[in-house]
Amino acid sequence: MEPKNETRPDSGTGSVGASLEPPRLDALDRQILDILQRDARRSRAEIGQEVGLSAAAVHERIKKLERSGVIRRYAALLDPEKAACDLLAFVEVFIDEPRHEAMFLSEVARIGEIQECHRVTGKATCILKVRVRHRRALQRLILDRINAIPGVHGTETVVVLSTTKETPHIHLGNDGEESRAGAESGRTHSGE
Fold this sequence. Notes:
The chain has 192 residues and is α+β, with helices and mostly antiparallel strands. The protein contains 6 helices and 4 strands, in the order H-H-H-E-H-E-E-H-E-H.
């Protein structure tokens, strides 16, 4: 019988003790995760009514999902405009040599305005999702902080004019299958 959660030493991915394969999620786990992604403040009893389980069974499943790392954390989602931080941009970063990447990633992790950093294919090394209050703040971020990191030899920035869809929701259904949460994500933040 094979063990379900073998661990391995760090393979360069930055996650020591990561599972060889992701935890298996059954249909109930997926339903619970879908509900929590839409509203993590729902009670275990409410979730249980929706999926046909007791509150205790839902609680145990959620704890299992937390322990396995499927659920990393819970957070409040802010409205950027109401929080006066609604200038969104994507910054492509070009790094001279691979030896500079570790320092770059370390510096980027400390800059609060950078919401996401992705290693990408193509000419750029990374693409950053940044959110700031205004154009001057974006200019300072790019010129004084990002371009000042050793090894960065240039950036290319795209400023977002409007956003049609932005969601932290991860679709857990089968390929091509529309999820209920996907259909609900078209609603405005106020639930209109």
